[in-house]
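Q: What would this chain look like folded?
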Amino acid sequence: MIKKRRDFNNEDVYDLRLSIAYLKDEIGIKTNTFTSNGVSVHQYQLLPKYGNGTLNYFISEDIEITMSRFQLHKDILYKPVIDKEILQICFLITGEKIIYIDEVQQIFYENRASYMASIDHFSGHSRILGKKQFKEIKVVVPKTFLINHGFLNDYDFKKLSDEKLILPITEELLNILLSIEKKDSVEKANRLYLRAKVFELIALQIELYKKNEVNPNKTTQNKILNILYDVKKFIKTNIHRNMTLTELGDEVGITGPALNKEFIRVFGCSIHDYTITEKMDHAKLLLENSQKMVYQIAEEVGYKNATHFTAAFRKKTGTTPKQFKKQL
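A: My prediction, written as structure tokens:
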């Protein structure tokens, strides 16, 4: 059985995955609470330790809306608290976020992207990328909300693990989101107003998903997270090749230095370092799970001869391939 490893390195991040608190309570301090026309509003200021900005949380009966507008000093890893069956609708107006569903599967979205998913269990975690403005509106309703209003009879909602989950935010959606976000509308918002907007958002998202099944959108193809993950995938599937930054850049339409800079920003290591790590990890898997000779493994991970491979393996792991195999 070939072992798999996590798809991210030990970057300099705020790791809050062991916290049992909601993210807003972990990284923010409550500055104000009030109730207006059936809507409870809780306002938070981001703690200076993490960055600057605000998180506003609205509750109206069975509807929860979180509006985040902040910039982090560095990335945050956190495990969302989900203690009931919910429908989650997220609209990322600005910023970058990655959701790790499990050890090998992740979804990511950025700048004018959205998703709507039914969640009954989630054991993964999320990552908000720092040093960039992050502006997101998230709507959460319980499954009972969908049952009571007949949504489950009309549409089979997607799961986080489903394909074609991420959709672009259309101008129509953006106008609704901005109307919800407006300060004067928020303070004057009442229960019926928020419910009407949530109905509208769900209906529009359902319609967009239906259209996307027929004509898949291609608007996210050139977004940087998609490009960087394509580069990772390309490196993994071409582990036998040794490509220059220029060649990789040509593959994805970005200059080599710019691509490497973005790669370091998101993953905390250079493309070269990542490539070497992948080569050596693949070599370890072959040493653990096959009877191939060292020179055969060297060729498979892109080294012209066993001597060069052995030197690189020793530099990375502190031991030679033969010694590593003997230790198994």
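The mean pLDDT is 88.
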